[in-house]
Prior knowledge:
Largest sheet of chain A: 7 strands, mixed
Number of domains of chain A: 2
Radius of gyration of chain A: 19 Å
Shape of chain A: globular
Enzyme class (chains A, B, C, D): oxidoreductase
CATH architecture of the largest domain in chain A: 2-Layer Sandwich
Largest interface: A-B, 48 and 48 residues
CATH superfamily of the largest domain in chain A: Dihydrodipicolinate Reductase, domain 2
Pfam family, one (chains A, B, C, D): Semialdhyde_dhC_1
CATH class of the largest domain in chain A: Alpha Beta
Protein name (chains A, B, C, D): N-acetyl-gamma-glutamyl-phosphate reductase
Order of helices and strands of chain A: EHEHEHEHEHEHEHEHEEHEEEH
Distance between the termini of chain A: 34 Å
Number of strands of chain A: 13
Oligomer: homotetramer
Number of helices of chain A: 10
Keywords (chains A, B, C, D): Amino-acid biosynthesis, Arginine biosynthesis, Cytoplasm, NADP, Oxidoreductase
Strand content of chain A: 15-25%
Amino acid sequence: MKVSIIGATGYTGEELLRILANHPQAEIVHITSESQTGTAIQSIYPHITGFYDKTLESMKDLDKLADSDVAFIALPHGHAMEAGKRLSAQGVKIIDLGADYRFRDVGVYEQWYKVPHTHPEANAVYGLTELNRDAVKEATIVGNPGCYTTASILALAPLVSCQLIELHTIIVDAKSGVSGAGRSLSLGSHFTEVFENLKAYNIAGHRHTPEIEQALSLLAGEPVILSFTPHLVPMARGILSTCYASLKAGVTASQVDEAFQSLYQEEYFIRLLGRGGYPSTKQTRGSNFCDLGWHIDSRTNRVIVVSAIDNLVKGAAGQAVQNLNVMFGLEERTGLEQAPLYP
Amino acid sequence: MKVSIIGATGYTGEELLRILANHPQAEIVHITSESQTGTAIQSIYPHITGFYDKTLESMKDLDKLADSDVAFIALPHGHAMEAGKRLSAQGVKIIDLGADYRFRDVGVYEQWYKVPHTHPEANAVYGLTELNRDAVKEATIVGNPGCYTTASILALAPLVSCQLIELHTIIVDAKSGVSGAGRSLSLGSHFTEVFENLKAYNIAGHRHTPEIEQALSLLAGEPVILSFTPHLVPMARGILSTCYASLKAGVTASQVDEAFQSLYQEEYFIRLLGRGGYPSTKQTRGSNFCDLGWHIDSRTNRVIVVSAIDNLVKGAAGQAVQNLNVMFGLEERTGLEQAPLYP
Amino acid sequence: MKVSIIGATGYTGEELLRILANHPQAEIVHITSESQTGTAIQSIYPHITGFYDKTLESMKDLDKLADSDVAFIALPHGHAMEAGKRLSAQGVKIIDLGADYRFRDVGVYEQWYKVPHTHPEANAVYGLTELNRDAVKEATIVGNPGCYTTASILALAPLVSCQLIELHTIIVDAKSGVSGAGRSLSLGSHFTEVFENLKAYNIAGHRHTPEIEQALSLLAGEPVILSFTPHLVPMARGILSTCYASLKAGVTASQVDEAFQSLYQEEYFIRLLGRGGYPSTKQTRGSNFCDLGWHIDSRTNRVIVVSAIDNLVKGAAGQAVQNLNVMFGLEERTGLEQAPLYP
Amino acid sequence: MKVSIIGATGYTGEELLRILANHPQAEIVHITSESQTGTAIQSIYPHITGFYDKTLESMKDLDKLADSDVAFIALPHGHAMEAGKRLSAQGVKIIDLGADYRFRDVGVYEQWYKVPHTHPEANAVYGLTELNRDAVKEATIVGNPGCYTTASILALAPLVSCQLIELHTIIVDAKSGVSGAGRSLSLGSHFTEVFENLKAYNIAGHRHTPEIEQALSLLAGEPVILSFTPHLVPMARGILSTCYASLKAGVTASQVDEAFQSLYQEEYFIRLLGRGGYPSTKQTRGSNFCDLGWHIDSRTNRVIVVSAIDNLVKGAAGQAVQNLNVMFGLEERTGLEQAPLYP
């Protein structure tokens, strides 16, 4: 399987390289970067010295990449559509780790991301593998989910699809490590500013909001509007999503348990810690797992679901490789079986 | 002013020592520890070498402490009542940093803390200074608020007292640094376990829940029941509390702004970052400030308030000193004017 | 290959489990813990949920472990000798991750570790694989090196074996993450104490000193005595060892380069960053690599070598698995090929 | 005392503001920034909201600052000389926190800093207060020492001035938190890169080397050349300096003790932890203390001194204020008496 990575120098690109280094079927044929064309990848990421002997190419001559079976695109939003259009036309399957192919309604994309969608006919599949596996199998273009969204949708999907909660009461309070902000320099990612510091940001305006709503609305069969609050936590990796909703009248704890069991019991990458369980981000670090625990607050009749993932793995590159495996008929775990790095 | 600290070796006791080292009116007369009686305090906390030349005494001979004007008690819950009773009977004013004197209804205390209350006649005043200043002035026993509770009550008080929110929709998602768990050894505070890790704990069962509810119920004039979720964040100091509630129909953003302004504009220790403002814990580190920002999520008609404090200062020792100043007629900022330690 | 782990609940035991989960030839047959006998391992380490379905046994009935081909011992020093003696007599190969089998001269062991050596006839091989591979191949008992020692010996071996430095001038200034102190609770590993803190400890008295000296003395053909200073750094994993020595008169930079090249150029797990190179601990995190860079301080005629490892991998469990592979004739990298977890 | 700060938006400028907020005699009259002229300082540093109501001015119109009694300059090296020259000519005392006024021999400055010195006639005094107090009293221009240099010189001064060590054997292995790298954005200060990471940098080439050598040479009465290695530690504040030297033949431990006692026993800001003592950076965080401990390695006849400071306080702004106090005849501790922020 010939694999290219478009935009290989950001953290998602790097994480793809790390994971694919142990993938028995993937051969990296091209890696690209516009800002560092011509540079050897190990001079940018010395930790993978010995795993690759590759030099970054430009994506300007896109046709050179047409010898790939699949291309991962790890570019800022708005920049994947041209490559997606051109390469998919040449038979290259596309897994985009940005936002460009995540929305069914391109109007929603354009409203939240403030750029025109230039590839509305793409017929892309939303790559939250556990919820969309059959479609991913047939897909030629996959929009790989966001990090917050993966953690939040997986937490809420059982409750929404089993109709156990009042949809208008959903609140997602999510917390992320700093790698989620990428490798671009900014004061908000400057060590001395972030260290021993904690804050919320983009309240009621974060772009992962409509993505979570889209997935839950599909499961609910009706529009879901929710509140989503992201926070920046002084750690490199990990997302913890704490999700609140009011139970519908008469819903029992067993029904809640049952909802999680029935949806996820066969899923390798979903680990159910059960009612009363407490996921923690480091329990998933470096792995593709999503750990889930849920709680009933009987005093307020709310259910509170907590999910933990590694934002760069299940929240980005790992799920992308999971989708790759599904798209190419491989065992879904291929290259993704390493245990979390704890402690 | 002769000051004693009962239980001086925990982090709250230590923080009292740190703050009082720069308090011009406070003279430390006794410091106690049962486990380390006879030890010089600077051998336990070398950072205060040069500030104190004091040795830890036992509190067994309580009467020795009766030469104090005021005693801070920084003991685990259940252990303050005996000292509180005996010393207040001898004219010593009491500021308890634990939970024993925080509840008007001792039944609530006994239900959540699982110990009998042996000093129900104490007539203690709840020491959230900004909301209770007049009572604190006259108090002989002050129950100093918890850390999570201080951050959460200050965030919600304007909305509740101005009747702008649906009380049954309140959710508090709070995050704390590890010093909040104290200095006692536990796997949950072991560096290697906590580092680059994030988790929730005690969902729907944390003991600060009824304390927040008590304060808000008094402001509301009716019972408030809410969901409270604490999280452990890999940093030493700081609490960030993210509070959600649905606005009552017709409430405007200006009314929300007005509620914060009118309650807090004269308060030195409350810094209003305004609508759209983002408090962060490090902006308050080492200081007695509580920073507040609020947001309207117009898509869901919720208000989201974020508060940040240093859990050991405004969340414990700092507010205790603030109460001390109020009780003894001093300028409320005395000893508390140092700027936050940033970065 | 049937593998047992004696002492599976400490961080080195856990790390063996993590690594062996991806080792194609190793089958775990027994894991032991005296304090938690009967407990399922995933209830202690939830991150490996799904990888093992094993319960901790006691090592009291040692003969039960005799069905193993090899036993890793991850116990505090002084506790491996009984199991080592009994099991090796029954044909079980032993890899001890503690100090009991590291010293050729048991007198040195007894002097620094203050316990009698009860298995002096063991004929154990010191398992610093790169320097001792042939002996490890034939070994029945391997004393796996310490974490600081691995980093320090690998840094200095080329210079010592090529006789480029004045042996009496060697100084090793080493820095470790907190996982090196293990999982036992102590104030020195309490999050709030360690966070944003840095200190040296055990100056001129750390037990890894004679171990480094033993290895370098063998390479030098004469006794080496050096100064070793460990430091505790606020991170979970990683050791950086900064090693100083005066160059012998007339030694050139090229000779230094040559010494590193000739000793290590064929070594997969040693990555040479070259003269002027700067290893960093996170570049090796989660992997079995040792990264090396060296510098000539021409103003003082010193050479300064910096090495970086993951203390739990190349400094403990990884090197133990490397030795396992060598002892059983497997490809040395088996189970150890995953790329470092960066960032 | 009218005080201006030229370059108020970097971390040293900010730290001056933090400290001077509690200085009873200092009134801030001007603060400058070229990149953010016209901005209110609290919009850049919200943590000092409420302490200052000042707007950043440009330093282009230098004469406006001539109404100051003293100006702190916190600019990158090479940029202080013009202001220093102009303002000192108008009677404004100068305390420069950069390197421009630190060297007696401007040739050394020009060689290491690669810029011409345009104010060689300045007659500046090196502001390591404890070693140079009398000269500071009379100074009109003070070159405030570097952070690494303060920690390292204070550690070695007793040994050098009492002639107890072989000067050519001195090695300084120093470790710093990330705030030492300033607030300018760089990949080397990007949170995700630095977190759980440790590395050395600028080996044998760091610009603090000649500054340490200058101070020690003056004390020794002969040239001192040493090896200096800085490391970057994943924390915001703090420097730990571990200093090695061979004792001269016959020097006893008591002589070493005596050297520290005699030089420092009257010094408020130097805290002697004694022989066998272990300073740690957090014990000094936020304070102007330098903690010192020393050790004799009798196996190698070396002395090892460890010093800890807060790089932004005793290593920069705190010592600058200490010098201010000395220059203006104030009690040296004024504004610097707050206890370290621990934990």
